[in-house]
Amino acid sequence: MLIMGSFNYIHYHGLMFPKESHNEKSLEYFEKFNLNDDDLIAITYPKSGTTWMQEILPPLLRGGDLTAVKTIPNWDRVPWMEETRAPLVMDKIPSPRAMVSHMPYQLMPPSFFTSKAKVIYVTRNPKDVLVSSFHFHKMASFLDEPGTFEEFTDKFLAGKVLFGKWTDHVKSWRNPDLGERILYVTYEEMIQDLRGVLKRMLNFLGRQLSTEALDSVVNHCSFKNMKTNNMSNYSLVPEEIMDSKKSSFLRKGISGDWKNHFSPELDDKFTAAIQEELKDSNIKFPWDDE
Ligand code: PPS
Description:
Elements: E1 2-4, E2 9-12, E3 15-18, H1 24-31, E4 40-44, H2 50-61, H3 67-71, H4 74-77, H5 86-89, E5 98-101, H6 110-114, E6 118-123, H7 126-139, H8 149-158, H9 166-172, E7 182-186, H10 187-192, H11 194-205, H12 211-220, H13 223-227, H14 264-278
Parallel strand pairs: 4-5, 4-6, 6-7
Antiparallel strand pairs: 1-2, 2-3
């Protein structure tokens, strides 16, 4: 099912992945991935809070210890299951392992469906996902130029972007078979009350942190602090690959930046397209009435 596509991308089960971080070998590794019952996967559609989860999960799983987030780059600390780094670092991750993935539910490896591995699914307002992705395409030399914001919006709505349609991804992970194995959180809730969301995550994981340890994780995972953490702000990536002069990877870190990018007409078109695709799903989001 792997087709080599345009220069920057490979196509896998109809989805587009960047060649910079995915290849035939990494996708084969993903397909054969052996999940343990105590594994934890943060699943995100790109630009929904992946890097944030790579900062949050190690201290949550290790009594508030911030050593890993201060010493190991995010991509090796909480690796993507489908990316080229995975086979190199997965064995070095302490148990219980924390990993991330942008994969839709139906493409998860067979061991996922037989294991008890837990999932935290982070959703973000697709308008802000689109804005974040637009700026990322401008600064990342390994992605195609996005074109105008309107052109990029059309590609996003048609699913001709990394990992396909946002609506397909979100719907795929609402599969009732997941039962108690999945916790849904939103980027917006994390912006509003990170401490509260971390407590929900701890509860979901059956873990506890002291008040002081939780305070320290909340403080460490603020946008301001992550921006200065060289293990998380992508400053280790050469400028030819990610040019932070064009746009920072940790760019604004707010909810609602879409209001600075969408015309009223584009907003109407985007909202109608997303609503149409979600109409039979019963999924409600905090931003539905914005
Ligand atoms: S990727 O490429 O899929 O891994 O990107 P991802 O990490 O999912 O998303 C990047 C956006 O998440 C923002 N971010 C944060 N916002 C608030 N607080 C914290 N701590 C934080 N960490 C990452 C990051 O700034 C990107 O959003 P934008 O809107 O572009 O700023």
